[in-house]
Specification:
By secondary structure, this protein is an alpha+beta fold. It folds into 3 domains: 32-136 and 237-429, TIM Barrel, CATH 3.20.20.80; 138-232, Elongation Factor Tu (Ef-tu), domain 3, CATH 2.40.30.140; 516-608, no CATH class. It contains 12 helices and 31 strands. It is elongated and about 80 Å long. It comes from Pyricularia oryzae (strain 70-15 / ATCC MYA-4617 / FGSC 8958). Belongs to the glycosyl hydrolase 13 family. Residues 35-448 form the Glycosyl hydrolase family 13 catalytic domain.
Amino acid sequence: MPAPAGTPVPRPPSTHPDGRTGDMDPAAAPSTRNETLFQGFEWHLPADKRHWRRLINLIPSLAPLGITKLWIPPACKGGGGAWSNGYDVYDLYDLGQFDQKGSRATKWGPRTDLDELVRAAGDAGIEILFDAVLNHKAGADSTERVLATRVDPEDRRKQVDRPGEIEAWTKFDFPGRMDQYSSRRWNKAHFTGVDYDNATGEKAIWLFEGKKWAEDVNGEFGNYDYLMFADIDHSHPEVRSEFFKWAEWLNDQMLLGGLRLDAVKHISRGFVQELVAHFERLRDAQNKPPWFVVGEYFSDEVSDLDEYLEALDHRIRLFDVPLLKNFSRISFEPRPDLRTIFDGTLCASNPDNAVTFVASHDTQRGQTMDTPVAEWFVPIAYALILLRANTGTPCVFYGDLLGTLGPFPSPPVCGGQMLPKILQARKSHAHGRQIDYFASAQTIGFVRFGGLAVVMNTGWQYAVQKMFVGVERARERWVDLLMGARGEVLVDANGYGDFWVGPRGVAVWTLPYFIIGTRLEVDYKVVEMPSATRPRAFDPSASSVCHAAKAVKTQEILKHIPAVLMLEANAACVVIPRKSMGTPDSEPAIPPASPPITLTLRSTEIRVNPLARRPATRPRASEFWS
């Protein structure tokens, strides 16, 4: 059930005088890899048949950012051929290798490039999520005469005319494929209705004679089975058999990590449940891990999503649309209350089954589900879905990381600077137990005992939140990874720090980092750096830099250096954490013969200098060596 308005984020009942809630024990829970999904496309990418290659080139940048799953656009041939984004699906078996609809390749590229992308992602430890469009078909090869009844578009249960004959685009022969992979031809018997009469050119919604809308679908418009094009009858035995066969074929064709199921709001729940069970049996019989399956069910009401998950025995995940709506609402309110950000959301009621997101191809500007989030709030939203514990699986949108094209082009959010750093923080430090500080409407914060203190502020003034990061962190100096809050925070002897944040912003506090811009390639080696370029003092045990410099094998180097390559606009970064040492009034000696490291990436060098440790008064400007 959705939480009542104004209910804070679910948390343990204990509350402490400083405003923190939850477990007092700072010991981190065992670290596991944080799963992070990346949507690898936006709606207005060019129809140049080169997008699979773009993603291949992007893979080396995504893996170091902590991306573990890549959601690719529909790879099946669409009715629009090389101009189609794939949601007007024509042939599920044509992945860009058959000459159909005026093109062999899809808009995204040929089958050979798709196969190469799947291999490249697998080599980088990234699983591919295949976008499966199973609700309808488009681009039929010819028409058929069919008896049908017009229904009320506002209540599809009501018939507004007598049955009459229409000419429907429902005959699919797939001549370019010539029965390869499947000999099934589709006709009017496999569909429930259409929205176009080719004989008259009239647009309406017609229900075919002898058919009925699926009953176990969303109840909007009386019955929301029909969405677009030729609506598939999922109760037809030949349809069910063909989809199960296609699932087996897809599993055998390429190494996938899961599926994104389009428009499940409009498909029989019983069919989806049977299909998912078929996937599970198939994978289990092959001793393969289960697929990660997420459904697109666009509803503002968390009760709809909870009910759907219950009906499917929680076998799949759903996108957390209510959370996106909260992001949009709060970002435009004059006096927003951040404590209500998770009210009525899927990540609050069913976190294990929630996929959280800030934008998608469906919600970007100009789309039918356009859900704007004010730009100033986007980093806050991403910090909430990427850095918190037990808040679902986050999905990062292509357009937010790399920008969008089309009628409303936009650059990467916040100049392309913040999102990669938040992703890096998720990979490196968003681990362990969490303490929430949700006492103020305008300023909230939370701590992760993997080494993060996050503060966010919707007010127009600077704000400070006192938070506990652990006694073992005493005397450490933390900086804002996003570099919006200048200076350092000194953790006191009791493990507390006064973490501050600028107006209408977010600060992600952690130990200092080097951030060194470079292009991203793949080969690494250790080289000597001239002593004149070395900082005058550094901690030799900070990030095993000295030990790594003595390593011989590349694998050993990378094992010892907790470095992460990050996208930085059109470049990338290496970040290496540095742990403070000594006391504020002392300075460590310079270790003799301890060379820094240069990571040579083919034709480009990344110079990694250990950060100097100097006496400091707080606050002061952070210093970064480059």
